Structures are given as structure tokens and as C-alpha cells.
From TrEMBL:
It comes from the Eukaryota. It comes from Rhodotorula toruloides. This is Double-stranded RNA binding domain-containing protein-containing protein. GO terms for biological process: RNA processing. CDD domains: RIBOc. GO terms for molecular function: ribonuclease III activity.
């Protein structure tokens, strides 16, 4: 089955398919391309067919259709977009294939609106088209559909690439460095400190999880010390050091800090925000 990955070209493909001048759909003798296994109460698994069994449903044919369709559309840069399940479903719907699907009464509505099934119907139809009408008819039908789509996809990718090049990459702020600088400025030594404590390793051998805590201390104007503790997790010690969040003893503050973790993510960043540095 074709991939279901979304691509930058999908919106352009959707518009192009909606405006396609569709070719005449060749009539086939067999209706297996539109037959779901549930229609005849057969076993669901397509690979369970005995050798020599007649092909009776689209679930076996779709794999053949997928392979031969891939052989016809050879432009690698646009193949993923042109052969994605979303694109095939759009074409299948324009051709009216979903409404021709035969399945059990309980499943028909759900199957007809499933975009993966819609894509599979198109692939299954192509397989039977090649078998019954030959390669020339198959190629003419595919070319009539895809020839207008190729330049649309190419242009969509070109525009996306140009936009990406035009967008400058922002260097991530060094919040750890900013926090260290904060401990040194304006105050007498010892009035502000930020200490990262020992890291702990957990998780699987091939996928470790490191945790590290950061303790920030400062004396306020009344002379009392304000202490805040942050804990972070990451696949490396450095990542854990960056990705810390404040931890509090009260449920309300823990909830607020969990929200901060979701939106901000780093202990140093949290500290810089609270201290007015970011």
C-alpha cells in the first residue's frame, strides 16, 4: 500500500485533482477491484489465499496496483506526494470509486469514507486494468491523470524549498550561560548562585534517560534567601541540563510548573523568565 505521509505538496495536489479533466474510466469484466472481503464473508487476511485461488477482492489486487503504479511514476522528487494515500484517495473519490465499493452492510459506510480504503480501490482498479486491457490502456489512463499533477507537485516543492531558504534559522538562546552571567552581575559574590547537581541515569541501555537538578539561590532585599529547585530530563546529560523545570511542594504550583514544562521546557529558560532576563 502506498505511504500515507503528508507533504508540502498535498494542498496543491488537492486543488489540482479537484480541477482534473478526468479520462473515461475503462469498463472491466471483473468487479473484484471494488469487492471487500466482508462482502462474501471471506477470511480478512489477504495472504491466506490458497495457491491457484481466483482473485475475488481488492485487498490482494491493491498490492499489484501499488507496484505497477510506482513503476509508471518514476520522478523520485514527486513520487512520495503523487503516490501518497491522500493523493490516491482524492483521485479515487473524483473517479467515483468509493461509491462502488461492495462490502457487508455493517461496514460499507465506514469503509467508503476511509481514505486508505479509497486509495486501495484506485490501486486495485489499476491492477485489473493492466490485467484485462494491457499495458497500453493502463499507461494511457495513468498518464491522463498524472501528467497534469506532476508540474503542480514540482512547483509546490519548489515553493516550499524557496520559503525554507528564505526563512533564517534562529540560533537557540544559551539560557544556561545567561543564568550563569546573572549570578555574577551587580551583586556581591555569593549573593546569587546557580548550581547543577549530580546527574542520574535510568531507562534502557540503548535509550538512556538522564535527570539533573538545578538549584538557584538569591538573597532578597530583606536579607532572606530565596531557593528554587529545577529538575530536567533528557537523552544526554547536556539535554537534561537544558530541559529542566521548576519543582514545587504544593500541588497547585506543581501543576503550573508542568504547564511551564509543556510550553517552555528548560530550567534555565524558566529561571531567566522569572528573573526578567528573557
Amino acid at each position: 500500500m502506498a505511504s500515507s505521509d503528508s507533504s508540502p505538496a498535498l494542498p496543491a495536489v488537492r486543488d489540482a485533482v479537484a480541477q482534473l479533466s478526468l479520462p473515461t474510466v475503462p469498463q472491466l469484466e471483473s468487479s473484484a477491484w471494488g469487492m471487500h472481503t466482508s462482502f462474501r464473508g471471506a477470511r480478512h487476511q489477504a495472504f491466506e489465499a490458497n495457491e491457484g485461488d481466483e482473485i475475488l477482492d481488492y485487498e490482494r489486487l491493491e498490492h499489484v496496483g501499488d507496484a505497477i503504479l510506482g513503476a509508471e511514476v518514476t520522478l523520485l522528487i514527486v513520487k512520495a506526494a503523487l503516490l501518497s494515500n491522500q493523493t490516491l484517495a482524492l483521485i479515487s473519490s473524483r473517479l467515483g470509486f468509493p461509491s462502488q465499493l461492495k462490502a457487508s452492510a455493517a461496514q460499507t459506510c465506514q469503509l467508503r469514507t476511509n481514505y486508505i480504503v479509497q486509495a486501495s480501490l484506485f490501486e486495485a482498479y489499476l491492477a485489473l486494468l493492466l490485467i484485462e486491457k494491457g499495458h497500453a490502456a493502463f499507461q494511457a489512463f495513468v498518464d491522463a491523470i498524472y501528467a497534469p499533477l506532476v508540474p503542480v507537485v514540482v512547483e509546490a516543492f519548489r515553493s516550499a524549498e524557496s520559503a525554507a531558504i528564505a526563512t533564517p534559522l534562529l540560533e537557540p538562546a544559551n539560557y544556561v550561560g545567561m543564568l550563569m552571567e546573572w549570578t555574577q552581575e551587580r551583586w556581591r559574590p555569593g549573593r546569587r548562585t546557580a548550581t547543577f547537581n549530580s546527574s542520574l541515569r535510568s531507562g534502557l541501555d540503548h535509550k538512556p534517560l538522564w535527570s539533573i537538578s538545578c538549584e538557584v539561590e538569591q538573597y532578597n532585599r530583606s536579607g532572606t534567601m530565596d531557593v528554587r529547585v529545577y529538575v530536567g530530563f533528557g537523552s544526554t546529560v547536556a539535554e537534561a541540563k537544558r530541559e529542566c523545570v521548576g519543582v514545587s511542594s504544593t500541588p497547585q504550583l506543581v501543576l503550573m510548573q508542568m504547564i511551564d514544562l509543556f510550553f517552555a521546557g528548560s530550567a534555565a529558560f524558566q529561571a531567566c523568565v522569572e528573573l526578567g532576563l528573557a
